[in-house]
């Protein structure tokens, strides 16, 4: 994912975040998302591919750093506690 983001987002993610670890015992080899059942039962289908969606999500966070600062600084928790006592 980091390599894909670095190819598609202006701001580069440091590759030091990429760390290979040994798989745990019984580790699943692949998590394949198959929307067939929800398509058949509810008529729903994904409008955005993972590749497009992850880039849009990362760009949103990069473009909204003030929001992120508020959430990570504890300010959001103060707001939440004040509004939902």
Automatic annotation (TrEMBL):
InterPro entries listed in its UniProt record: NAD(P)-bd_dom (IPR016040), NAD(P)-bd_dom_sf (IPR036291)
Pfam family, one: GDP_Man_Dehyd
Top-level taxon of origin: Bacteria
NAD(P)-binding domain ranges (all copies): 16-56
Protein name as catalogued: dTDP-glucose 4,6-dehydratase
